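Protocol step 4 of 6: structure prediction from sequence.
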Amino acid sequence: MRDERDDEDFDQAWAAAPEAVRRSLGLAYEALEAGGLAVGSVLTGPAGAVLAEGRNQAYDTGPGDGPLRGTPLAHAELNVLGSARTEWDLGATTLWSTQEPCSMCSAAASFTGVGAVRYLAPDPWALATGNDGSSSGTRTTGGVWLVAANVMFLKSVSEAGDGGEEPATLSRNRVLEPETAHLHDGLPPGPPASPSVRAWLSGVWPGIIEASAARRLRTGG
């Protein structure tokens, strides 16, 4: 993947991103629209084509399909692996996620023999609770897609709040990921109104570019 840090044009950056990145972000946006936790995941074959997909459905309360929906097991990665077939050669596949998989999802990927695990961003909840780095996966992007994934995650956390105290995950990330938290604060209140993740990201792209640049200065990478 080319270094996206110099891609100031959204359409060019989006077109250059692998299909797995675009679709994972799209699924995270679908979860955000549904009032759930914004995490998306896909399983890709050796050539990069998406073979299966899923999003976090643990907090979905509306109508929908799937035996895990509305349960603590309904993480994006488990929904993806639940769509895989036993006869598939999972050793030749890659599991992608917008956030670093938790220990449960990492164990499931290992048990089922998935060949590789890749993620776009550290999990804001895991960062806030000191549980980050629990997977054996590889973070494959930084910059704009890291910020894009995590600002959706923080938005979903704040939207799920009860209107009282600020969620601890958001408060803690003001210290750990201040650039993304600041971008979150500039978003309009309420659920997103854009018809697609592409439209939504295009609208907040200048803020993503700014947050990415500031984060790179802070972290050195």
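Step 5 (inspection) to follow. The CA atoms of residues 31 and 100 lie 17 Å apart.
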